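FW: tagging you since you asked about this chain on Friday. Here's the raw sequence from the shared folder, copied in full. Didn't touch anything.
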Amino acid sequence: MTGQYEDFYGHVIDGKETESDDGRRFTSVDPWQGHAWAEIAEGGPTDTDRAVGAARQAFDTGEWPRMGHAARGRILHRLAALIEEHAAELATADSRDMGRPHAQALAKDVPRAAANFRFFADHARLTAAEHLPADNGTHVYTRYEPAGVVAAIAPWNFPLMLESWKIAPALAHGNTVVLKPAEQSPVSATLLARLALEAGMPPGVLNVLHGHGPAAAGEFLVSHPGVDRITFTGESATGRAIARAAADRLTPLSLELGGKAAGLVFADSDLDRAVTWSVTGAYLNAGQVCLAGSRIYVERPVYHAFLERFTAAAAALRAGDPADPGTDIGPLASAEHHTKVRGFLDRLDGGPEGRLLAGGPDPDDPRLVRPTVVVDAAEEAAVLRQEIFGPVATVVPFDTEEEAVARANGTPYGLNAMVFTEDLRRAHRTAGALRGGTVWVNCFFVRDLRAPFGGVGASGIGREGGTHSREFFTEPKAVVMDIAGAIGPEATGAAR
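HL: got it, structure written out here
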């Protein structure tokens, strides 16, 4: 116990959990209880130097980059097992930090975090490199060597799961990591680092640096000359700031940013499935999902039938205490974010901004925003243009496939989209025409960790997943060998 708070969570640097050099701390606020429940070390420039320095030393002189895929994989598999053993504690941390329903964190997020470590441990070991024998007596092959020190900055909406998505491939390929979790959801990162040390990960390989963003730990980290890669998930404005910092040092970066996904429901779709998946897409994690399908375009012949079923399904979701196993939607992650989401809803006056059909702020509990359905919004309305990151969906009719695709693409974002149709040709046609990194057909949020994940436009730069993660977290090197002893200087520069 530390003062009035239940626990203290420090940085984890070079294998030790520590205070900040200046002793500063901040608090994590439980959005349901409305009060701080834990104290966290608040990192400054010297703490950033310590964390990056530890990662640098572990990379430059330590065993981790040199022990090979199989040995690293065994440690990552042990870490995955420990994550499963400590599932309740990890789920509680995320639930208390940002309001994620505990039952969902326990059933979905923790198993996915463990799966991320297992997948990338095996993928790094089993994925083939290129071998290019040639008829001129040379043999060319590719080595995928670890890039160095990775700065991984995770968001607050799925803390543990997205922390693992970033650090698992980086570690599997032999890099060392400085993880900065979001200041709103810091606790699971410290717990994860403790488990990594218990699994046998050498000191300095996985470091956790807590703190805020601008003019604080986040900015110090992405600007640090000892960082070789930056991976960030979060809002687009922050991504732009990180890109500017990285540009000064030409640091490669991967940015998974905001989204404003559309779902296209055609008249020939299985309407029950379309409703079920659209509800999931709009309201999963209280809509605090970059992939959220918050813009739903429905072909006019089934518009009213879809709207009736969708509204009823949204109203059936239970909003409340995240500790209650029956809760579908918890509170928004912070009071600040609650105010932002309510600001969008306060604009709904029945004019061009749209009309509130169902849901909205809970009149009986100011902590909650109920699953919200908005209709009659003009195409330039804020609810259709801006990322709300809350449980708010707009439902809009359309008349033609071309119109639907144009509306779906009419946004600066390009992370993902959904299509609901039983017409195979239309499914392929629209999947190709939609602008985004992922298109789900008759489903949502189904992931294959081998597939590329990322967005275009304001939704980010780069892709991660499978071999795409290998490309980002390594430095591919071509090795050219004259195995016949017959190549002379005259062949220099010759192209094949």
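FW: The domain at 262-441 is CATH 3.40.309.10 (Aldehyde Dehydrogenase; Chain A, domain 2).
HL: agreed, and The chain is about 40% helix and 20% strand.
FW: great, closing this out.
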